[in-house]
UniProtKB/TrEMBL annotation:
Protein's name in the database: DoxX family protein
Source organism (scientific name): Streptomyces alkaliphilus
Top-level division of the source organism's lineage: Bacteria
């Protein structure tokens, strides 16, 4: 399921990049579109890695790191959307704490005993 979530997000970064461009923190060097492409490619690569038993642990740990790295974009989105109608502002605000269970999910998937039948 985590691979599906990442794969979908990765595809969306390329299919509909403008919303992702808009939440790239301005403090990052370069063009927002470049960061959108880099993060989309990373999500696609990690999704593939999660599907492969040999690379699952490393990909899951890297997924946790990526989710932490993109957290500032969720914070920026929450700030930028604070004046939008309530449902949209609420969705943007909810993304900030929602990152925590996603990181924990990835860390759980990175555990050595995942998929081994132990534990």
């Amino acid at each position: 399921m985590l691979a599906g979530l990442l794969g979908t997000a990765g595809v969306l970064h390329f299919a509909v990049p403008r919303p992702f461009d808009a939440i790239v923190p301005r403090s990052l060097p370069g063009r927002p579109r470049d960061w959108t492409r880099i993060s989309g490619a990373a999500e696609l690569a990690l999704a593939a890695g999660l599907l492969t038993p040999r690379t699952r642990r490393a990909s899951a740990a890297a997924t946790a790191a990526l989710l932490v790295a993109v957290w500032p974009a969720n914070v920026k989105m929450a700030r930028d959307w604070s004046r939008r109608p309530a449902p949209w502002a609420g969705i943007a605000r909810a993304r900030v704490p929602a990152q925590v269970p996603l990181v924990l999910w990835a860390l759980h998937a990175a555990r050595p005993d995942r998929g081994s039948g132990r534990g």
